Amino acid sequence: MHTAVFRRYLQPSRTLRWHPWAPLVAAGILVAFVFAFGASWGFAVAKRMSNEEWITAYPWTFTRAQIEAMRPARAALDAARAFDAAVIAGARKARDEKALLYRWRVVVEHRIFDQAWLDRRRNPNRNVDLHAMFGDNARRAAEYRLDNLAGNAPYWKRTANLCEEMNARFDMNDELSRAAAAYTAVLGRTITAEQLAPLSGAKC
């Protein structure tokens, strides 16, 4: 009974100008049009926003240059803190890698994602460990910081006037102690808070 009714529905009616499936086809075309229009609009907006980001980058670069000229000691300290954050993250990752569950996850990710990345790059070296490659960035950041943003490095000498420039009281002892522990873990040698401190001292 139901099959016969369905078959009659599929047959075009002699009294109708349109096939019964015409509304479904029209709805499908409408959905496809809306999707295509939305996708093209989205790509256009993304392109415009990307262009706007490049345009707004120039004033920000100019402003940053002005701030660095007015507060050179603070600019040097902010640069050092960026490297400290990278080293702390690297030390945390190395600590997490000691957990069995984390190592299992890394093995799975290496089998799935690292190999796929190598295939896309068409790299003949199939033994590259991306986790080790990314983890090595923390060591490079630590070495760069100690060579260029510490001690008697020319750029770091700006921090000798940090207290006068900031004209405020601050205490960086805890912050530098945490950073020194991370540097020690990443580099495998003892790094003290004094080595990372600005030349004006860790406390003003």
What's the SSE pattern? HHHHHHHH
The gross shape turns out to be elongated
Tally of individual domains:
2
Provide the helix percentage. over 70%
Say how many strands there are: 0
Structural class assignment: mainly alpha
The total of helices stands at 8
Q: What are the segments in which pLDDT stays under 50 over at least 5 consecutive residues?
A: none
Rg to the nearest angstrom? 30 Å
> How is the quaternary structure best described?
single chain
Taken as a percent bin, the fraction of beta residues is: under 5%
The average pLDDT value, as a whole number, equals: 77
Largest sheet: none
Terminal CA distance: 91 Å
Could you characterize the architecture of this molecule?
The protein is built from eight helices and no strands. α2 packs across α3 and α3 (72-96) crosses α7 (173-187). The mean pLDDT is 77. Helix content is 73%, strand content 0%. It has two domains: 19-70; 71-196, no CATH class. It is an all-alpha fold. The protein is elongated and about 95 Å long. It has helices at residues 2-10, 22-70, 72-96, 100-121, 130-148, 162-166, 173-187, 193-196.
